[in-house]
């Protein structure tokens, strides 16, 4: 496997691996064909190495995902699950898993199995050196070239152009101390973005190269619209530069428009355009400040689970199966 440059923060004291306790959080959206394989691979790769919990989070699936999760949970008491009341999105799904993880470490593993669960041992080994978070970096990525290119552009804009601190080339395949993951969730940011929020809480993070493989079953849930929204949440939520650029563009446009007035009627158009840019920028800035003081809807609501769930996270009237049998 080729080397990948890792970014190392301030590692803490090394940890013993003998009693390493880990919750594998698996967000799922219409992944019925992958549930049994995901469970089997996780159990085979980690069941004899660590104290293990496998926590599936069903993000409002419309297929047999929940039924198949129930079936593996009935056979193995290491399997927990949360079923959300609707599709809240990937950030909400893994946030629910982080909040209700049983053990001191959480491993985020998507149900598409493009990251082999056996690769988790590399993340665990680095975490044992004293890191709070370890992010996997795909080597020989097995995604279509448009997605690979989009990721490179996204990373360059965020880190280089906008100065946002995110782990370079980091993915959702990550191992994080549960207490820190929960701190990120409990911040309840208006623009949640885990990769950008965690470095604001700790410097003790690093990256490691990991294998990647094609999706075996089902189809990707990633859409162009979803990627665009996710990117805009990052760009505008974690950097002041886009808003500042809009303001300066508006200010610069005013003298240009006035100068154009000396030569013809185009001045009206130029002045109106500059004024609109400035007004939009100022309104955007005002809305950001106002939104920070507004009550936000729940990040997620749980309809069904086999673990205890706080009342605030339950959909009203959905407590019958919650926490049953555990």
From TrEMBL:
<keyword id="KW-1133">Transmembrane helix</keyword>
<feature type="transmembrane region" description="Helical">
    <location>
        <begin position="268"/>
        <end position="288"/>
    </location>
</feature>
<keyword id="KW-0472">Membrane</keyword>
<keyword id="KW-0808">Transferase</keyword>
<comment type="similarity">
    <text>Belongs to the glycosyltransferase 2 family.</text>
</comment>
<keyword id="KW-1003">Cell membrane</keyword>
<feature type="transmembrane region" description="Helical">
    <location>
        <begin position="243"/>
        <end position="262"/>
    </location>
</feature>
<dbReference type="InterPro" id="IPR001173">
    <property type="entry name" value="Glyco_trans_2-like"/>
</dbReference>
<protein>
    <submittedName>
        <fullName>Glycosyl transferase family 2</fullName>
    </submittedName>
</protein>
<feature type="domain" description="Glycosyltransferase 2-like">
    <location>
        <begin position="23"/>
        <end position="182"/>
    </location>
</feature>
<dbReference type="Pfam" id="PF00535">
    <property type="entry name" value="Glycos_transf_2"/>
</dbReference>
<dbReference type="GO" id="GO:0005886">
    <property type="term" value="C:plasma membrane"/>
</dbReference>
<dbReference type="InterPro" id="IPR029044">
    <property type="entry name" value="Nucleotide-diphossugar_trans"/>
</dbReference>
<dbReference type="GO" id="GO:0016757">
    <property type="term" value="F:glycosyltransferase activity"/>
</dbReference>
<keyword id="KW-0448">Lipopolysaccharide biosynthesis</keyword>
<dbReference type="InterPro" id="IPR050256">
    <property type="entry name" value="Glycosyltransferase_2"/>
</dbReference>
<keyword id="KW-0328">Glycosyltransferase</keyword>
<keyword id="KW-0812">Transmembrane</keyword>
<dbReference type="GO" id="GO:0009103">
    <property type="term" value="P:lipopolysaccharide biosynthetic process"/>
</dbReference>
